[in-house]
Design goal:
By secondary structure, the chain is of the alpha+beta class. The protein has helices at residues 2-36, 68-76, 99-103, 124-138, 164-170, and strands spanning 50-51, 57-59, 106-112, 116-121, 152-153, 157-160, 177-180, 193-195, 202-204. The chain is built from 5 helices and 9 strands. A hairpin with a 3-residue loop joins strand 5 and strand 6 (157-160). It starts with a helix and ends in a 5-residue tail after the last strand.
C-alpha cells in the first residue's frame, strides 16, 4: 500500500510540475515582448543599421562607397549616372558647390546623368553638422526651409538628385536615407526616423512629395 501511495503522489507531482513549466513558458514569452517595447532606432547616423518600416530588426546600414567610382555605381542603381565627371569646369557642375569642399569636409565632387551631384566627404558628423548650421541660418528668413530634407546620405557620400523619382527609388529598403534637420519634421508611423550623429537631425526614408 505504501508503495502504491508513493507512486500515486510522485505521478501527481510530476504532472503538476509539467503544467507549471508549460504555463511559465507561454507567460514568459508574452512578458518579454511587452518588456522590450518598441525597438530602438538605428544609431551612429545609420552606419550600424536599424529597423525597417514595420519595426523589425535587420534594416541594412547605409552603403559605403570608398571612392567616387563606387559611389556612382551605387547611384546607378537608382538613377541615370552616365557620363560621370569630376571636372569643376564641366557644365553639369552647379555654381557654389565648391563651398562644400573645405567647410563641409567634401573631398571630391562629381556630376552624372541628368543633374545628379555626388559629394564624397571625410566625416559623416562634420557633413551633418554643417548642413544643420546652414539650415538654421536659412530658417531665420524661411521657417519652412528644409522640411523635406535635402541630401541623400551614404556613410561617406551624399547625393543631390534633380528628379523626384530618383529620391523615391533611392530611399527604398537597402538604399540611402534622407538627412532631415527641420525641428518640425515628423514622418507618418512606419517610416524610419533614425537619430543622426548631430542633435536635431534624423535619417529617414520618408519623402514628402
Amino acid at each position: 500500500m505504501r508503495i502504491q501511495r508513493l507512486i500515486t503522489v510522485t505521478t501527481a507531482a510530476l504532472l503538476a510540475l509539467t503544467a507549471v513549466t508549460a504555463c511559465g513558458s507561454d507567460s514568459g514569452s508574452t512578458s518579454l515582448d511587452g518588456a522590450l517595447g518598441d525597438p530602438a532606432p538605428a544609431k551612429n547616423g545609420g552606419t550600424e543599421g536599424g529597423f525597417d518600416g514595420d519595426g523589425k530588426a535587420g534594416a541594412p546600414a547605409l552603403p559605403k562607397a570608398g571612392s567616387m567610382a563606387k559611389a556612382s555605381q551605387i547611384v546607378s542603381a537608382y538613377a541615370d549616372c552616365s557620363g560621370l565627371s569630376t571636372d569643376p569646369k564641366d557644365d553639369d557642375f552647379f555654381p557654389g558647390d565648391e563651398t562644400y569642399d573645405q567647410e563641409w569636409g567634401v573631398t571630391e565632387r562629381g556630376a552624372c546623368g541628368k543633374g545628379t551631384r555626388i559629394f564624397m566627404f571625410k566625416d559623416l558628423k562634420t557633413f551633418q553638422a554643417r548642413y544643420k548650421a546652414e539650415l538654421d541660418e536659412d530658417r531665420k528668413e524661411s521657417p519652412n526651409k528644409g522640411h523635406r530634407g535635402k541630401f541623400l546620405l551614404g556613410q561617406d557620400f551624399a547625393v543631390l538628385p534633380d528628379q523626384k523619382p530618383v529620391i523615391r527609388n533611392a530611399i527604398k529598403p537597402g538604399g540611402l536615407l534622407i538627412l532631415n534637420c527641420h525641428p518640425d519634421f515628423n514622418p507618418p508611423t512606419g517610416y524610419r526616423k533614425d537619430p543622426a550623429l548631430v542633435k536635431g537631425c534624423v535619417l529617414t526614408n520618408y519623402f514628402e512629395d
